[in-house]
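Cross-check.
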Amino acid sequence: MSRFFRLIRIFSVAWRFGLDELALAAGGGRWAGLLRISRALGGRARTTAPRAERLRRTLETLGPIFVKFGQVLSTRRDLLPTDIADELAKLQDQVPPFSAGMARIEIERAFGRPVEQVFAQFEAEPVASASIAQVHFAILADGTEAAVKILRPGMEPVIARDLALLDTAAGLIEKLWADGKRLKPREVVAEFARHLNDELDLMREAANSSQLRRNFLNSPLLVVPEIYWDYCTTTVMTMQRMHGLPISHVDALRAAGVDIPALARAGVEIFFTQVFRDGFFHADMHPGNILVESSGPNKGRYVALDFGIMGTLTEIDKNYLAQNFLAFFKRDYKRVAEVHLESGWVPPTTRVDELETAIRAVCEPIFDRPLREIRFGHVLLRLFQTSRRFGVEIQPQLVMLQKTLLNIEGLGRELDPELDLWKTAKPYLERWMNEQLGWRGLIDHLKREAPQWATLLPQLPRLVHERLMRDDTAELRTILQQLLHQERSRNRLLAAIAVLMMTGLTAYAALLWYF
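Predicted model, tokenized:
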């Protein structure tokens, strides 16, 4: 019954903000008559605001889980109209903090002892509060300053309930909205559920932070807080307290002597380093998650926070992405089209020349312009429209990358409108490609594969023999029996096996000597 009443509330809020018009404007399918009645009953007072604003206000009214869903949905510009994606991107987690008493109870439940025995000092007033967790400052027993992230109590049943309702609503959208199936709302809800479940496990977030810190250890560009593992559980995460100014406070950073244009260029390099060197990147790089050191020897260095959402890429993904970026930067649109075909992102029957012409029409107008004159949201929208025309399949592993690239654009535009993203990124990508495809890349690849080769090569003759003996093809067994019964053939077979073994042993010895 609680789910039923919650569903009734969702529909009442959606009706109050006139969201039935969204479905009606798209045709409404067989539900169009009912939607028109709903619109008539609601009157014009419901529909004075733009549709995107009404959708945002609906999600804010329904609570923090729906707000976070809207944030994730705003990244799917391949599925949404531009006005709705832009409006949903404005959603912020303005969630009231839970009480200090509840925070203490959660800490005591996590560690099995009073707060005073866990921390030497614990500040009751939170410094940040969001829909999933909030952060308090504390001091450890050895005097180390720390930041303690505590999961919001009682979130699991609320999230499970709202996710079930979101899935139900997504199913209705597929039926009510003429374009519902193409938008894949249930897949979007499933994607959101995966990210949300990851954020509910603070040990996973701590591991993400530890990996990113290891990737940028001693980096002059980015610092990541250290994790204090003895003070971490699935509901409480304790990390190094970081100091700095929010990156959105540009005037304060400039007053502190931070080189703002250099800061903008460093942001681009950090992004491409995470993506192409590591294949592991911070996928929630909005201004609230980034500080900048404003004093000391590392003035101007980025400070990353909040590691609940991270993206990963395979070596194949990185290679195709780098080739795409470099081809874009060189205006080699034919190569862009060819890479799409090679990667399987478009059907094999696609004509390269037609795809090349379509991509050129989208990208050519934006080159040689400063960042302030380029709207990447519009460019991405046109690319997605072109993609649909040619049957391009949006790659799930690239969705977070698209979101992060838009975040980088926003940061760059705020810091330095004159930043030329193309000229900043191109040298890094060219260097990365040379390292991957040149002699250095070959040697690194050999080093990575050497342990596996060293194990496999001595076993190769035995594996070949076992494979032949297991083969259930009657013809092959007959030939093998004939070979074994003929002296000349047997000698040739033994000689071949001996040569194979010698080759394997020689290669094995060479690898051991070299590495």
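The chain has four domains: 2-92, 95-159+172-216+231-241, 243-437, 446-514. Residues 2-92 form one domain. Passed to J.P. for a second look.
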